[in-house]
Specification:
alpha/beta; TIM Barrel; nine-stranded parallel beta sheet; 9 strands; metal ion binding; YdjC-like
């Protein structure tokens, strides 16, 4: 490529809005992991957050690490999804009650975080590039304080998912408002105080019943700014899976692997990238 072509490429990409698509729930099921790996291979995703308590995790991690140079691999902290009897878990309402009433055992929370963290390192040979939470539990009271303290002790140099600046689109403004006010501002301030990086903006919130995921995604892209993290939950089809949002997962996968998704990114001048790379610029 000539210097002139390099210059034109630099000018073009520097004017694009840099966005990261992150798939949650890697290793929750074979169908979810396979969908995420397929989208990574097609360069549709640049991050995925991993559930290290899953019995699939070790084998899935080996497949994931083949793409480690092209994506960010994060720890998807889990306190609510039941994998087996050896996995401590709460129902979401119970966890929320215990968190807001300050009845959670901080020592037990720390041990759980450390166990999931160590599972990640054992399978990948490295620390997570970022940390978030299944059902956004990482921003709950007690959990967020323990998490930030733990990350400081680990000298963590990655980033933490931030929901404090979400893109609010109709008809999900209320849900977006509620999720933001479940501790996002407090976690944001704590991360800033301890010099932990975060994504600048957040999208991906809806009720998983929206029939036109493409149209919803277009609303997010229309409002996108540099440093936007778009959460997604893709999966391949599985008729026997016990998952209340399985249909939405399949719809997301179908859109994200489609030509329509590429066309939408081009239409809204979007460059997909890692959050870490965006924050460095």
């Amino acid at each position: 490529m000539s210097w002139h072509a390099h210059f034109l490429f630099y000018v073009e990409t520097s004017q694009m809005t840099k966005v990261c698509y992150c798939a949650d729930d890697f290793s929750m099921s074979p169908e979810i992991s396979s969908a995420i790996l397929d989208l990574i291979e097609k360069h549709r995703l640049h991050a995925t957050s991993c559930m290290t308590q899953s019995h699939l995790w070790k084998s899935d991690a080996q497949r994931l690490m083949k793409f480690s140079e092209h994506i960010e691999c994060g720890l998807h902290l889990n306190f609510t999804h039941f994998f087996d009897v050896d996995t401590p878990s709460f129902s979401l309402p119970k966890l929320m009650f215990l968190a807001w009433s300050k009845q959670l055992d901080a020592a037990a929370i720390r041990q759980n975080i450390e166990t999931q963290w160590n599972h990640f390192i054992e399978a990948t040979g490295k620390t997570p590039d970022f940390v978030d939470g299944h059902q956004h539990v990482h921003q709950f009271p007690v959990i967020r304080d323990v998490l930030v303290e733990f990350l400081n002790q680990q000298r963590f140099d990655g980033w933490v998912r931030n929901l404090d600046h979400p893109l609010s689109v109709s008809p999900y403004r209320l849900k977006t408002f509620m999720l933001r006010h479940l501790g996002a501002a407090q976690l944001n301030r704590s991360c800033q105080t301890h010099h932990i990086q975060q994504n600048r903006y957040f999208a991906g919130i809806y009720d998983f019943k929206f029939s036109n995921y493409a149209a919803l995604n277009q609303q997010w892209l229309r409002k996108a700014q540099d440093g936007l993290l778009v959460m997604c939950h893709p999966s391949l089809l599985h008729s026997n899976i016990q998952d209340p949002i399985h249909s939405a997962r399949v719809a997301e996968y179908q859109y994200l692997q489609s030509n329509q998704f590429e066309q939408d990114c081009h239409k809204f001048n979007i460059q997909r990238s890692k959050i870490g790379a965006i924050l460095c610029n």
